[in-house]
Amino acid sequence: MKICYIVAMVAEAQPFIERYGIQKVEGFFAPLPCQLYEGEVNGTTLYVVLNGQQNGSDLVGCEAATVATLSAIQRLHPDLIINSGTCGAFRAKGADIAEVYIGNGVMFHDRRVPGDDAWGTQSLGNYPVWAGSQQLAATLGMKMGKVTTGSSLDMQPCDLEMIQQHGGELKDMEGAAVGFVCTLLTTPILYVKSVTDLCDGGAETFEEFSRNLSKACEALRVANERVIDYLTKQIQGF
Ligand code: SAH
């Protein structure tokens, strides 16, 4: 069994990489920017693929996540993709900083394409998540929410409108892109997202994100250890 994490930022993956002592495989995806780490946990191969960096900063966003996911699935053939990272969430929906959620759906909130239903449906994404996501969340006592993806850290009124209209809860910049590739290649996907900022909390998003990043990433590490434990010990196949 092979599990592959897709992670955008070094800060999000580092605590986890250190915990499992997994090793970097230099140049595996060259000349693409994504980076591979590989190890083994409870007899399961564990890959962590980072989107990589450009000009000294992490490649956040859909384009880099698409490249990383496509490359990872085609080269590594994982049984399950896990997109793990930070997100914004909504106080009005009961969210708090450093809470970790499991995704129960995934959509785009900033693709406004006029046209008939087919165009609208395609723009929104709404890709399936791994069928075992709900059971995992219930067993581990974790909250669930719908991941909603856009290309910006801030939230414009039109984004909020779309998010509210379609029940988005966990605002990130990669989830739906990863889900899109997984749908094309029929690879199941699990989302594990930790809250760095509250989109309706009144604070400036980047400042709040930066202030809570390490706390949220530590919570993400703890949650991912539980998730890995569950996946490698409690279930057979995906
Ligand atoms: N300059 C920043 C950029 C981080 S972008 C830095 O390097 O520190 C934010 C990242 O965290 C993205 O990968 C995104 O998936 C996630 N994220 C956290 N809060 C978010 C929010 N409110 N909206 C969108 N993405 C968010």
Give a summary of the structure in a few sentences:
The chain is built from 7 helices and 11 strands. By secondary structure, it is an alpha/beta fold.
Pick out its properties.
single chain; 238 residues; alpha/beta; Rossmann fold; nine-stranded mixed β-sheet; two-stranded antiparallel ribbon; 7 helices; 11 strands; 38% helix; 28% strand; globular; binds S-adenosyl-L-homocysteine
Tell me the distance between the termini: 9 Å
User: Uncertain runs with pLDDT below 50, 5 residues or more?
Assistant: none
CATH architecture level-2 label: 3-Layer(aba) Sandwich
At the first level of CATH, the class is: Alpha Beta
Query: Remind me, CATH topology?
Result: Rossmann fold
How many helices does DSSP assign? 7
What hetero molecules are bound to the protein chains? S-adenosyl-L-homocysteine
Relevant CATH superfamily:
Nucleoside phosphorylase domain
Could you estimate the helical fraction of the residues in percent?
25-40%
Spatial arrangement of strands, main beta sheet: 2-3-4-1-7-11-8-9-10
Number of domains: 1
Main β-sheet, in a few words? 9 strands, mixed
Q: Quote the average pLDDT.
A: 96
- Gross geometry: globular
In total, the number of strands is 11
> Which class best fits the helix and strand makeup?
alpha/beta
Integer-rounded radius of gyration: 17 Å
Helix-strand pattern: EHEEEEEHEEHHEHEHEH
